[in-house]
Design brief:
mainly beta, 7-stranded mixed beta sheet, 4-stranded antiparallel beta sheet, 119 residues, 11 strands
Length: 119
């Protein structure tokens, strides 16, 4: 199983980034998918999750209204569109699949992609 994230980088406050995660070696459509993040000195937290078919989506409060998660089961991918990035958003963002609920941690993780917000 391999999850490969891309799309991280440096943006100014108020800017946007789109993170993508490509899955291989796994029946992607069988898994709940989510994006989590971990900032230095903080615990990893779920940013957003999406059900197997995409019919159920949930966001943590800080992401609601700014971030959009989506998935394409045909392409085995899950994306996170992040708008209005703020100074509190920098972290390593991880793609994660598996688990029995959106707020669980799944079995499979990507290596992470760094998001930095700097003026």
């Amino acid at each position: 199983v391999q999850l490969v994230e891309s799309g991280g980088g440096v943006v100014q406050p108020g800017g946007s980034l789109r993170l993508s995660c490509a899955a291989s070696g796994v029946g992607f459509s069988e898994y709940i998918a989510r994006w989590s993040r971990q900032a230095p000195g903080k615990e990893r937290e779920v940013v957003a999750g999406i059900s197997k078919t995409g019919g159920v989506i949930a966001y943590d409060d800080f992401a609601l209204g700014r971030f959009t998660i989506s998935r394409d089961n045909a392409k085995c991918s899950v994306d996170l569109q992040m708008n209005s990035l703020q100074p509190e958003d920098p972290a390593v963002y991880f793609c994660n699949i598996g688990g029995s609920g959106i707020w669980d941690n799944g079995d499979y993780w990507g290596q992470g992609t760094q998001v930095t917000v700097a003026s």
